[in-house]
Write a structure and sequence with these properties.
168 residues; mainly alpha; Multidrug-efflux Transporter Regulator, Chain: A, Domain 2; 6 helices; two-stranded antiparallel sheet; 2 strands; 2 domains
């Protein structure tokens, strides 16, 4: 009965040059991995094939883990920077809280609507003309209300699809 060569046999060991050729790197790189503990040296300065494969995989997994840590740290730094920029803009009043902006716009819209609703009575005593003017004003406010709702949905979605009205 012939025995098959085991993992410790010389057929499964490689020189540093052979290991470097196997992984497509330099002989120095193989020795660096051995020095860093990724690859174990066998007797006679040779390397087992299994140790080379495991060591190279472990090395690249460690590189990937370091890269992931660096990317996470970079994302955290970017988030902190963005938060600081927003706080600075808020303090300099370049940026105001959404609730404050909505409150001001709501108050102004209520004041404008109140002024316009009283306009027909101030404009004429003729009831037919007054109703016609009230219908026109109500129609205008209905159109404005729809446009405001569209604008709110657009802004909430992060879009700016509002067409700017040219100033005259």
């Amino acid at each position: 009965m012939t025995s098959k060569p085991g993992p410790d046999s010389s057929q499964n060991t490689l020189s540093a040059d052979q290991a470097a050729a196997l992984v497509g790197r330099s002989r120095r790189w193989i020795f660096d991995l051995a020095q860093k503990g990724f690859i174990e040296k066998e007797k006679g300065g040779r390397f087992s094939l299994l140790a080379i494969v495991r060591g190279v995989v472990a090395y690249y997994e460690a590189q990937l883990q370091e890269s992931n840590k660096a990317a996470a740290a970079n994302r955290a730094t970017e988030a902190r920077t963005r938060e600081i920029e927003l706080r600075i803009k808020e303090r300099s009043r370049e940026l105001i809280p959404l609730e404050d902006a909505k409150a001001v716009v709501g108050e102004m819209a209520t004041a404008v609507k109140s002024e316009f609703q009283g306009l027909p009575a101030r404009y004429t005593r003729d009831m037919q003309e007054r109703r016609r003017l009230e219908q026109e004003i109500d129609g205008a406010f209905e159109r404005l209300s729809r446009r405001a709702a569209e604008a709110e949905r657009s802004l909430a979605a992060g879009e700016n699809t509002l067409d700017a009205e040219p100033e005259t």
